[in-house]
Amino acid sequence: MNESTTTRLTEGERRLVEVNGIDIIDEAERTAKPVDLFWPWFAANVSVFGISWGSFVLGFGISFWQAVLVTVVGVVLSFLFCGVIAIAGKRGSAPTMVLSRAAFGVNGQKVPGVFSWLISMGWETFLAIMAVLATATVFQQLGWASGTTTKVLAIVVIAGLIILASIAGYHTIMRLQSVLTWVTGAVTIAYIAMTWDQIDLAAIRAIEPGPVSAVIGALVMLMTGFGLGWINIAADWSRYQRRDAPGSAIVFWNTVGGALAPVLLVLYGLLLVGSRPDLEEGIVNDPIGTLATILPTWFLLPFLLAAVLALVSGAVLGIYSSGLTLLSLGVNVPRPAAAGIDGTIMTLGAVWVVFFAQSFLGPFQSFLITLGVPIAVWAGILMADIALRRRDYDERALFDSRGRYGSWNWTPITLMIVGSVVGWGLVINQFADEAAWNNWQGYLLGLGLGGRDGTWAWANLGVLAALAIGFVGWLVLGRAAVRRQEEGIVPTPAGEPDRVAP
């Protein structure tokens, strides 16, 4: 286990650049309160991009009231899952993917760790791309230059902000998030006030209801797009919580901070897009820029600033945590360097999409559902693992493959494989033209669900199945293993006597 040198730095130095990597947070630094979790989660999700999700939800062909139901249930439930996993951070003082070593083994954790790193990289790159495209669109509306030079400069500024804040680390990010919350929140409220006259209740009431399969499809999309998209980093921010912080308070503030803004913003998006269906086509390729087209010119710059800052806020959380995941996979560099590596990859990805890709939203959503399946299995396993444990983690054993958590725990790894195979068989690539590389999915839909062309193909049942397989499977099969771990019994090869950890 790496030993933190933070206690030998001055207070100012510690708060300028966080030197903690995946090592255990020193007790003296664990001063955060549960309410502090509200700020990073709220700031990362109070983005006008949430309004665009109204278009994605109604795109499933469901009514306004059906959309309201799935929005509230899907967003709140998904962030509730994040809150449950955040409890592990308090119990173990380590990042999320290090804590999952207790279930998967110190080396076995690299299996879900790879998927976690990929989905984090995808999200942060996506947020950076949207910020660049929104800048170009707003500049065009203002009559300013909006071509290649503007996009290049936007990428440089946006990527620079994300990388620098991520390198600075926890203390700087927490301060920034508390400030950004007020800025982005105020401008978002102003946006709603300025576009409220666009709402047409008659047009909204006229939207026809859709089948149950479409309702479930919209529900799963919201769950993967919000809470499940963050769940693999949920304990990264709670590891600075005091040990005596109530688990219920951590779950509550995590859930409220994450879900409050998205619920309100998606609901408004349903009203706006339901009234103005002509916005849907533009939202597909430039979600935030399209929302700016209905604003008065004088408000475009404040809107752009708030939109970009909100996206940067979300990407900063992603880069910070993807850097920690990279370290948990065995990359031996300081945490700031890991954030720099991931920031460079993010920048290259943004350049490719902005200047060379024909469409990015379709491939991104296809990518999101594909990676969402194994992450859902992992999330189910980790939530079950947290429910089974009665004691704090053995922090030293999280870094020692010879300790009580072992090196490779094959039961959860097998569950992850089975859950992924079943899950991928029950989802389809909904963007077959833009992401033809993903057309292999849906191979189980022919078993009584109408095949790839049936109505249930769009329900994304595979994500729910994967989550259930992970949770129920480990709740049943992992009980004995967790009890042995908490008794200090170290896994040994078959035929050898058990031994107790020192």
TrEMBL record:
Keyword set includes Membrane: yes
Chief location: membrane
Entry's transmembrane regions: 38-60, 67-89, 114-140, 152-173, 179-199, 211-231, 251-271, 307-331, 343-361, 367-388, 408-428, 456-477
Intracellular or extracellular location(s): Membrane
Protein family per UniProt: Belongs to the purine-cytosine permease (2.A.39) family.
UniProt xrefs under PANTHER family: PURINE-CYTOSINE PERMEASE FCY2-RELATED
Protein's name in the database: Allantoin permease
Lineage: Bacteria, Bacillati, Actinomycetota, Actinomycetes, Micrococcales
